[in-house]
Each structure stands twice: as structure tokens, then as C-alpha cells.
Specification:
This protein has 429 residues and is mainly α. The chain has 18 helices and no strands. Helix 7 crosses helix 8, helix 9 packs parallel to helix 11 and helix 15 runs antiparallel to helix 16. The chain starts with 8 loop residues before the first helix and ends with a helix.
């Protein structure tokens, strides 16, 4: 953002309100349930308080391609309500997550202002997960945490994406710090995010998150440092996190979860010839295969603009009657409002145009975040976080509720960060 003009009393008050509500909102948002709603309210206040800076820096906003692509995708989503047969089923509340972008814009050049509060919020949620899992607190009084692996949110994969993003960003912060105390604090928050990620028991996020850590370590070792022994720090960070993951893998008996995935894949391959029609698709993996197939069929039906926002469940119900029974009717849960893929949900609701916008956003976001990591060391983990979120978005519909739309918006806003000169940075504080 460009350097704003001298502050008036109103702008000074707005700046204080913005700083307080942004920090509090970012800390509360990762937990879920009531705290996430309070976090979104606080971020909405921060967005309003940020208006003076946003107005003065509007030219920089207008030049951001990743922001325009994100806005265009949502504009198409809203426009698609006009040709939807069931607009009442659209997920309007998901748009609430967009308030993260204006709230973050005044401080994108200063990642510490939003990054540390977010990591602290993820760490506190991981603590809640760990205490509930270990039995240190009684969770019977609160139904939402009776399954401690999901923490305070109803869907554990969505908890996992927050933990995974915080882990990657804080590893980058720890790697670039020269002060030992700050580095240790960043590492502790990164480890807390790892614990929260593991406790979600989400196999996809374990694989994706592990691959993203390796990408982050390789990038740091190759692109940032070329001197002798400079590979030690990223290698040590990666090794330490792998040790934590290995210990958790054994203690939590996670091999059983991967064994279940292997059995699902074997059943999907049709190795059990005595299975009834559709039984081989009656699993988490199998239903995703069906939704991919149905999404392709529905895209061909309306290839340009899709069936409209909120039409997923009705469209799948109509397609079920046209497909062979083993590809729909014989499989419980085939008809759903959530096809567990942002790409499939977009293909059904907004057609080929929506898919193109989503792919363009993904490519632009990765490229932009990669460049941001080159000139802002604290955000060296931003590009791996983008890649990890995109991979998760293929198997989970992260654009259906504000809890995860807020996280995508956070990545969009962070990818717009620009390094300021020291004097400009001083004046913007």
C-alpha cells in the first residue's frame, strides 16, 4: 500500500480500532463456532476502520490481479442466483469470510500484525483439542467437543486447513528470525499447529501438509541461502517436525486410518466381486469419485454458466435418475449440498466460466505468493500454504462456509503484500 497522508484525529482513532479488532479477530477466528463468529464481527469492524487507508491506497488495490479474480468469482456466484432453480439453498453466509481482505489490507506489508494473532489462535485451539483428547477436561457438557479431534468446529478437515496454514507460515517466520526468543516462540506456535493438525485425524491434510513442509524447506535451502552450512536450519526444522509427526503417528495409532483408506481404495477397485451394486462406492473415497463423475456430467449439461448458486443438491438428485444405480441411487449420501470439492461445486453451480476463474485465481495466487516470499522473508511459507490449500480444495469444498472462505481470503490478501521502504513503513504505523 502507498504511504497515506498525515493522519487526522479520526484516522488515528480508526487506526487504533483497526489494530485492536484485527488482532482479536484473527486470534478468535481459527477456533470455530461462536468464537469464529465473534472473530468475523471484529474483522468486519476492522474493515470499516480500515476505510481511510483503503481509500488513499485504492490505486494499489485496482492493480491487484489476484484480488480482481477473487472478486469476479464471487460476482459470478451472486449473478448465478438469477438462473438457479433453488437460490434459497445458496450459502450466503460464506461471503462473510470476505471481510478478511479489507481488514488486512492496511497491514499486508507488516505480516506480524496479522500472522502472530492467527498463529496464537490456532495454538489455543490445538490446546483445546489436546486437553479434550487426553481427557484433562470433561467434554460431555458440550456436544461439539465430544469428538475432540475436531476441536470447536463441527468438521475436522476445516480445522486441519487452518492448522496447516499456520504451521507453514510460522515455519517461515522461525526460519528468518535472527533473535533467538522470537525464533523459539515461532517454533512453539508451529509445533502447536502441527499437534492440532495431527489431532484432526484427517489423512489428506497429513499428506498435503507434509509435502508442503518439504517444499518450504527445499525453497528456503535453495533460493534464500547459498553459503556453506545454510541448509542446516531448514533441514533441522523439517526433521524436528517429522519427529513430532512420527511420535504422534505411533501414539495415536494413525496407521489404522491409512489402513482404512487402503481398504476403501481396494473396494473401489472392485476386488470384492460379491459386493452389492454400489457398495464399492460406499466410502469417503468412493463418493468423491461419484461426485467427480456427476459434476462432469452436470458441467456438460450447462457448460458455460452452470446451474446456479445453491443448485448442487437438486442437480445431483436429477442426475441420480439418469445414472446407473451403482453410480448414484445405490450409494447412500450421493445426493448432497456438499460434493467435497471446490472445483466440482463451481463446475455445477457456475459452469465452465466459474471453473476458469477459479483456476486463474489459483495460478495467479501461487505465482504472486511465490514472489512475495522472495522479498518478504516472513512470508516464505505463503506459497506452500497456497499450494496446500489448493490441494485440499480438490477433496473438500472450502468455499461453502465463512470459516474457510476467510482463510482463502487471508491468503489472497497476503499475496498482495508489498515491501515498503523503512521511512514509508514508519509513517504507516
Amino acid at each position: 500500500m502507498p504511504v497515506p497522508p498525515p493522519l487526522t484525529n479520526y484516522c488515528q482513532a480508526a487506526q487504533w480500532i483497526h489494530a485492536a479488532t484485527l488482532a482479536a479477530g484473527m486470534a478468535l477466528l481459527p477456533s470455530g463456532l461462536v468464537s469464529a463468529q465473534v472473530g468475523l464481527i471484529l474483522l468486519s469492524i476492522a474493515s470499516i476502520a480500515a476505510l481511510p487507508v483503503l481509500v488513499s491506497g485504492h490505486r494499489a488495490l485496482l492493480r491487484s490481479s489476484v484480488l480482481w479474480l477473487w472478486i469476479f468469482w464471487w460476482l459470478l456466484w451472486m449473478l448465478s442466483l438469477t438462473w438457479s432453480a433453488t437460490p434459497g439453498a445458496a450459502h450466503w453466509d460464506a461471503m462473510w469470510g470476505l471481510v478478511v481482505i479489507p481488514a488486512m489490507m492496511p497491514v499486508t506489508h507488516n505480516p506480524a500484525r496479522w500472522l502472530w494473532p492467527m498463529a496464537i489462535g490456532v495454538g489455543l485451539h490445538s490446546l483445546a483439542q489436546a486437553t479434550a483428547w487426553s481427557g484433562l477436561i470433561d467434554t460431555t457438557w458440550f456436544t461439539e467437543v465430544r469428538k475432540p479431534f475436531r476441536g470447536l468446529h463441527w468438521y475436522s478437515p476445516y480445522v486441519a486447513v487452518w492448522a496447516m496454514t499456520s504451521m507453514l507460515l510460522m515455519i517461515g517466520v522461525a526460519a528468518c528470525q535472527s533473535r533467538r526468543g522470537v525464533r523459539i516462540a515461532a517454533l512453539m506456535l508451529a509445533i502447536a499447529a502441527v499437534v492440532g493438525l495431527l489431532l484432526t485425524m484427517n489423512r489428506t491434510s497429513w499428506i498435503v501438509g507434509g509435502a508442503a513442509v518439504v517444499i518450504l524447506a527445499a525453497r528456503w535451502a535453495i533460493t534464500r541461502h547459498h553459503g556453506k552450512r545454510q541448509w542446516i536450519l531448514p533441514s533441522a526444522l523439517t526433521a524436528g517436525l517429522l519427529v513430532v509427526a512420527a511420535v504422534a503417528f505411533v501414539s495415536l495409532k494413525m496407521d489404522a486410518h491409512f489402513g482404512q483408506a487402503q481398504r476403501d481404495i481396494m473396494r473401489l477397485a472392485g476386488e470384492n466381486e460379491d459386493a452389492s451394486a454400489g457398495a464399492r462406492f460406499d466410502s469417503s473415497v468412493g463418493r468423491r469419485v461419484l461426485w467427480w463423475n456427476a459434476g462432469w456430467e452436470l458441467l456438460l449439461d450447462r457448460p458455460l454458466l452452470g446451474h446456479g448458486a445453491g443448485s448442487i443438491e437438486l442437480s445431483l438428485a436429477k442426475k441420480e435418475a439418469q445414472l446407473p444405480s451403482e453410480w448414484g441411487a445405490a450409494v447412500p449420501g450421493f445426493i448432497t449440498h456438499n460434493p467435497h470439492s471446490s472445483l466440482i461445486a463451481t463446475a455445477i453451480e457456475q459452469g465452465g466460466l466459474g471453473v476458469l476463474l477459479l483456476l486463474a485465481l489459483s495460478i495467479t495466487g501461487v505465482m504472486r505468493s511465490w514472489r512475495v516470499g522472495e522479498h518478504m522473508q516472513q512470508l516464505v511459507g505463503l506459497a506452500p500454504a497456497w499450494l496446500a490449500m489448493l490441494a485440499i480444495g480438490l477433496t473438500h469444498a472450502v468455499l461453502l462456509e465463512p470459516y474457510t472462505v476467510a482463510l482463502v481470503s487471508l491468503l489472497v490478501a497476503a499475496s498482495m503484500a508489498e515491501r515498503q521502504e523503512p521511512e514509508a513503513d514508519r509513517l504507516s504505523q
